[in-house]
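Peptidyl-tRNA hydrolase: structure, please.
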Amino acid sequence: MNYLIVGLGNIGREYQDTRHNIGFMVADELVAQAGGSFSTLKHAYYAEYKQRGHNVYVIKPTTYMNLSGKAVNFWMQQLKVPIANLLVIVDDLALPFGTIRLKPKGSSAGHNGLKSIEALCGGQAYPRLRFGISDNFPKGRQADYVLAPFDNDEQKELPALIERSVQMANSFINIGIELTMTNMNK
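Here you go.
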């Protein structure tokens, strides 16, 4: 079986360690733990590896967040990955920092990367790993907040949270979404 893991983020050094790039950070760790590395291919940084008999493909779209669906749709078609085997790793303002939730489907909740995926990949019925970044910003400052680095306290917690996200992605691949949600969503 083929699985496509998508870490959402923006390319460029200025976005590297921002809240909006947590998907890239988790994808980097997932591939590093598998002993892989990324290549630059069409619309994405791309890596692949085998895990328990599954072909795992990991992408970080190079289309910028607002056009993520272009990369996701291209690679789903190219690799013949069914939507049930797609996992999108995304930052989520609606969840407190440190909360990580796996969901089988859902709305974009205003997230431009998810809106793009919905528009180009057939709706909202795809799995996503939501990484809570909180909503601790003044009214009208959402863009500044998501494009800012994690604060010092958050940075101390990030390695353990990224590790938990990697474990959840691996569980999704190995035992499926339902059992993973039962075992790991808290």
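Notes: The mean pLDDT is 96.
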